[in-house]
Design brief:
- 2 copies of one chain form a homodimer.
- Chain A is α/β, with parallel strands linked by helices and 660 residues long.
- Chain A has 17 helices and 32 strands.
- In chain A, strand 4 and strand 5 form a beta hairpin.
- The interface between A and B is large, with 72 and 72 residues.
């Protein structure tokens, strides 16, 4: 073996960030996201260094940005940059000998101690002349003049230095550095995607339930894209930006599941939309009961008019009736008896689903999926919610997402993988723009503090979390048994603690009854069409609709809430009172800082009184702060330690905006 | 920008270890060290994978070693390997579809549930025939026979499988895998250096003090290499393996420091050995008062005879009288007034020292240092203790160590850098085989638990800690005010918690009086010759010599203590009772496990009673364990929870060997 050491530079740069796996993958960012760039850099001895970020935008412009020293003792250098262009940003860190500040520090100390006074002036003069040599025009003359002044007679060295500093010597020197011993880090990349990749409010409904009606004979008439168009207003009025639809393709009839996941479907049971494909078509086809392709196009258009994007489901599996089964049997696994393998988790069988075999004909299947995705992109779909990506090869997704994004960089893939962390993180690195996460199962303060910090800081470079309060698959015991306060608490945290949150319809109606022994709603919409009386709900005072509407309004009005990485958790003395803040500095918000502080009682069954202890620096504040509760309109003056009382039965949260 | 993504393999391998900075530097190991190799690897869906380590020894032999699953839910795969060859080991991780175990798992579950019984047998038959195709000789025949048996008539599927398993089917299949979908990680390197690089017992003395005598007129007659030879017996009898000598070169006379670091030396003051160089010579010269080059050679030889290696100081700085000042003024910094810059930390001046300028003539100075080091290597010196490496450029050290180790891979460099973590870690990555660390300032239980775990686990791949109890520069307040129990406690922990420990002479005599306001001994040997009455000390019962001797004997008898990475800390209910263990598995110790459990009261002023809670798995034990206290010889039966009483005034520690 030869030398396996990387050559260390003259000024060591031992770490840079953001970075994923030593540069193997780009760090994720979204348009408008504030990213902390930095490095660990240091030198031998006492002399000072300067550290700069060389940041190259997707358009190719390179800026040099001076980094500031970070946490004491750690040789960290950082800056925060708001990314304002889509595409790949590249950066390097440059570290060099800061001769001017080394000299200035020594000069100030020595003049104070009356040591070597004329000598340090002479050294200053020499240094400024060297800076001048490297410079042109006005700055050259100014540096030369300062050099002469430092060694001029008539006044004391201390007076000469003081005069020069007041006249702007430091700014001038900083503008014209020599960058002696400059060392560059390896280059790294940050991929800046559009805002909805990382920040947005999502809603989910089943189009067949929207506008569905119960007929006189007790049967249900399915909704469709035409009736569902009317529901877009409801979604829009609550302030959602993305509407995700479960699969809209023809549904298999073989082994179709009945209500509550029973094995035998009745003649009127509509089946699970995830059992994709029948004689009418497969992944490239619209379920006839939902309408025509024209109806779907019109639906997408109507949504877009309301500033709602449609997210489509991409579930790579087939019902036994899917056209692929006949046209491309090599995309499935043939068992030893010649039959096609259905899904199973032995000894459980899922005979309504044929999983794909990704290894028999990888190129053929890839081409087919690319064709399907490309078709729906042509219909105006720019977001795909991928069903169970963790049961398909990671390298397939990496290739598919890269290929789709090459032609359509605006397309977003959301990974629905609830599995072990290694896989969830790998899918993020493979390119998934967004991922469902374990937020639904983090309900107590301590576990929220730990998990929210992980999401906002530890994994944010490669894993963008979507905080869903419920889904057709998820109705946690917290919601089943927490009553209406539980719904309010979860929506409040989801909408304000991450950057993307999501809600599946029915949540705003407090639908909380589970199929016995399961963590999902009874009479699940996966297997039945649900008829909901939205008119009555809207008239009622007893829904979560006003709260959801308020939360999405606050998100729009307070850009700090749209960021992921700015989350800071604070302390409270109560084991159930969660406190966190989000701060966006004035320079990243048009000159005015935006700071939100959330205090929430995570126990839905109690009234809690406690003291909240704030990290004021994280709020961009000192001493007293004036805050307005954006839920009640109340105003308070807060400081480092604050009394709070939160009654979950009336209002479990403060959402405070820091006014000054 | 093009594609910046690393291509993910069919079976993702998202992390391998040991690894330093994504492979930028080799991981450190020493001969006989047990290293945990591993990977994070997983696949989509439910099918099983196998993960193997492809380990190539420095001689070029490659082994495949099957990894075992690590902690649940983390997709970790690990194995432990004792490295038994010097040089660069390289490794890759291989992950592949484990078709046999996937089939076996499904078959067992299905047979249990009476589902698809003949079909799984048929699938087994097909699989075994495929394995057989890939195989030769006896195994081919055996696989074919098993294949036929699985589908033979006459007995039930469950009976056929059971018969095959009892006949060794699994071992056979594991020996002949297909390795379908095999994915390889990037290669990584582990540099295995000799044992003393990472594990040993060190002693420090000033040769001029060894054999020094007080003359009748009250002056002191310096010791020298001839008189110091006699002291080697003392060092050897205590069981030390390395003897480190402060600089042995001529000492400058200009601005020589007097006793207790005073600015003016008297005519008989010997000066600090670190003020190197006078008219007699510099770094390549022996101080005439210590003897001749022949005397030094004889001293090294005498030490080696006692199995003691000599570590020499490498302090790259000069007194104003050093020959370099005239011969190579470009190796120093010229100030604006033409004078040579002495060391300073403004406004403090250290006029007895000229620091080196590493940037004026880097090649010339590098060559000179290489010449000096090479000279002493030719005298039998194989260890250099580098003074203040953090005040010299890191890239200089990386180059020097690589160059020296190219010709002399056995040479060890020890970094004496007490500074911020970024620099300390960078020096380890630059190649320093060993480093002083902050152990001296970690005295309470909690800080020891945190720091010892950092040293043994977080930083062990690139930073090998030497745990010194004291040095001529370090006499902590814990030792100043902790009394004799403090000395016993510190030696016990240093000798058993890390892998390398060190002691500077005088520690065993409880020398604890500090220069007022300082953290070092009064009348420091750095500036004076110390006359100690070792004969009286050896006769006295009141020294730490017996304890130190016992500790080094226990280290030799218990190889678990010579490992760094096997440290596990356990819990006790008392905030001062520290508990840790070191376990060496039987397979890495000639068939017999070696396990040491240390319980120590870190409060030198108290008697503590508490309960110790053991992680028995980390001790390689279950249920009850029999232990012998290696200090007192007492035997106990311990379990998961154990009462202890530790009286610091008599015996602050248990050092327990687990007998079974």
């Amino acid at each position: 073996m030869g030398n396996v050491n990387k050559v260390i530079g003259r000024i060591p740069i031992s770490k840079v960030w953001p970075e994923v796996d030593g540069g193997d993958f780009p760090a994720k960012a979204f348009l408008g996201e504030v990213i902390t760039f930095g490095a660990t850099s240091f030198r031998e001895g006492h002399d000072l260094i300067a550290v700069e970020l060389l940041l190259t935008s997707p358009k190719g412009d390179t800026r040099r940005i001076r980094l500031a020293e970070g946490r004491p003792g750690l040789d960290e250098w950082t800056t925060q940059i708001l990314l304002d262009q889509l595409g790949n940003w590249s950066f390097q860190v440059s570290a060099w000998e800061d001769e001017y500040h080394t000299w200035l520090h020594n000069a100030e100390v020595k003049l104070q101690a009356s040591v070597d006074e004329e000598l340090v002036m002479l050294e200053g003069e020499r240094l400024l002349r060297r800076l001048a040599e490297n410079t042109k025009g006005k700055d050259k003359k100014a540096l030369t003049d300062f050099a002469s002044q430092l060694v001029a007679s008539g006044t004391s060295p201390a007076q000469r230095l003081s005069t020069a500093l007041q006249a702007g010597l430091t700014e001038l020197a900083d503008r014209n550095p020599l960058r002696n011993l400059e060392t560059l880090s390896d280059p790294r990349t940050v991929l800046c995607e559009r805002r909805l990749a990382g920040s947005g409010a999502w809603y989910e409904f089943f189009p067949r339930s929207e506008g569905a009606t119960r007929t006189k004979d007790g049967n249900i008439r399915s909704g469709n894209f035409k009736t569902a168009v009317k529901s877009l207003d409801r979604v829009s009025q609550m302030g959602f930006e993305v509407l995700y639809l479960p699969p809209i393709h023809p549904i298999g009839t073989s082994h179709r599941k009945g209500p509550n996941n029973t094995l035998i479907a009745g003649p009127n049971d509509p089946g699970s939309p995830w059992a994709i494909g029948n004689t009418a078509g497969g992944h490239d086809t619209i379920h006839p009961e939902l309408g025509t392709e024209a109806d779907f196009k019109a639906f997408v258009k109507a949504a877009n008019k309301l500033n709602i994007e449609i997210a489509m489901d991409l579930a790579l599996q087939a019902s036994p009736d899917h056209p692929w089964v006949k046209s491309n049997p090599q995309w499935f696994t043939q068992r030893a008896d010649g039959s096609i393998a259905y899904a199973e988790n032995p000894p459980k069988k899922y005979q309504d689903i044929y999983p794909i075999n990704f290894d028999n004909d990888p190129q053929g299947f890839f081409d087919e999926v690319l064709r399907v995705v490309t078709k729906w992109i042509s219909f105006g779909v720019k977001i795909f919610r991928v069903d169970n990506p963790h049961t398909k090869p990671v390298d397939f997704w990496q290739r598919l997402i890269a290929e789709v994004n090459r032609a359509n960089p605006e397309v977003i893939f959301l990974a629905e993988a609830f599995t072990r962390p290694a896989m969830m993180h790998a899918l993020g690195k493979a390119g998934f723009q967004q991922s469902y996460c374990y937020f639904s199962w983090r309900n107590r303060k301590d576990e929220l503090v730990e998990y929210l910090n992980e999401l906002a800081h530890e994994s944010a470079n490669f894993f963008r979390p979507a905080l869903w309060v419920n889904t057709p698959d998820i109705l946690t015991s917290y919601l089943q048994f927490g009553g209406k306060p539980a719904f309010k608490i979860r929506a409040t945290i989801a909408a304000t603690a991450g950057a993307t949150w999501g809600m599946y319809s029915g949540f705003e109606l407090y639908e909380s009854v589970a199929r016995p022994g399961a963590e999902e709603n009874i009479d699940s919409e996966k297997f039945e069409i649900r008829v909901r009386d939205w008119d009555a709900a809207l008239k009622s005072q007893d829904t979560l609709i006003p709260r959801v509407t308020l939360l999405n309004k606050l998100r729009k009005e307070n850009p700090a809430l749209g960021q992921l990485r700015n989350l800071v958790t604070h302390y409270s003395d109560d084991p159930e009172v969660l406190v966190y803040s989000k701060h966006l500095a004035a320079e990243h918000n048009g000159g005015k800082a935006n700071t939100i502080l959330v205090v929430v009682n995570t126990d839905p069954h109690s009234v809690r009184e406690t003291t909240v202890h704030l990290n004021l620096q994280a709020l961009g504040a000192q001493g007293e702060i004036k805050v307005t509760d954006l839920i009640t309109g109340q105003k308070f003056v807060w400081g480092e330690h604050n009394y709070v009382r939160l009654d979950s039965f009336t209002e479990p949260a403060h959402i405070l905006r820091v006014e000054s």
